[in-house]
Amino acid sequence: MTTPLSPGASATRRRVVVSGTSDLVSVAHSPHPIISVVRPTAPSVDLGHWLRTNRERVQTLLRERGAVLFRGFQVSGPEEFHNVVQAWSPKLLNYTYGSTPRSRSGVAGVYTSTEYPADQTIPQHNEMAYARIWPEHLWFYCGTAAQEGGATPLADSRRITERLDRALLRPFVERGVRYVRNYGTGFDLSWQQAFETDDRAEVEALCRAQDIEFTWYGEDRLRTSQICQAVIEHPATGAEVWFNQAHLFHTSALAPEVRAELLEGDESELPRQVYYGDGEPIADSTLDRVRAAYAEETVREPWQEGDVMLIDNMLVSHGRDPYRGPRRVLVAMTDEHDGRTGGRR
After folding, report:
1. Is 151 within a domain?
2. Bridge partners for 156 per DSSP
3. What is the C-alpha to C-alpha distance for residues 62 and 45, in angstroms, rounded to an integer?
4. pLDDT tens-digit series, residues 179-233
5. CATH number of residue 115's parent domain
6. Is the C-alpha dihedral spanning 205, 135, 90, 191 positive or negative?
7. Count of beta carbons in the 10 Å neighbourhood of residue 273
8. Who contacts 198 (Cβ-Cβ below 8 Å, separation ≥6)?
9. What's the total number of domains in the chain?
10. Whether residue 333 sits in one domain with residue 260
11. Owning domain of residue 11
């Protein structure tokens, strides 16, 4: 079952002061082991400046907990959010080779969160875990909190790994995960959307650089196939973490009626499908156990307007709850990690 955090939970939190910054911020550790909440002790505290001078302290919180929520700082709008993120890393990453629909905010490197209908749940996932290169850190900014629902729930990827028995983990670790995508089917993103370009040569160059097999079919059809990691070792903590999106790409993630319709055709033409790295099918029941592990570990902190949240993308997964009313949450990505070499690019 999930472990919701009630709005009043902060009253019971153990409050500690970050060493050397007692005049600037306080840190509240929530009862569960994922989120630390950093608050300014005065309205004049500039979050960007504080991040620049306290990076190591924030890194320590991230490695211990996985997510840091900055609440009560005067961050207003995508431009100020961009400035905060740049204080941490001057280079914001593009969403090239994406898997879900989202739009640019008008500020470089800042995107809308995934644009799924408000009544749908976005399951837990680590960003771009279906690729060999991914962001180490994700940043979220709440411009408008939904009237009801709309949280960005989190789950500890270390705990997911611990919940999965070794018999389930072994074939994933040994063989990896193969992702097969067909663009231009009308059921998913076009290749232009996914690769953020209309230039086929740019697509081919990226595929070659990231060891993605590709085949063109006419002008608008593209098939890609890539073998990626399933479990990784965190570069800083050494923790073993479940890091893939098999449970999202597999047809068992679809609504029954949609799955039935798609499976009436040739499986090789599915918009997306996932296999073990050697091409062997993954059983529905296997991924149902993965989803159950996520459900047991998921926690949530309701958004408040102006919140900024930083998560370690390898230690913590994220999703989205259904919601009612207007909601605007922006996303930025930093610190590109190359899973092939185990280091930052």
Report:
1. no
2. 316
3. 21
4. 999 998 777 788 998 898 999 999 999 999 999 999 999 888 999 999 999 999 9
5. 3.60.130.10
6. positive
7. 20
8. 192
9. 2
10. no
11. 3-120+132-145+302-344
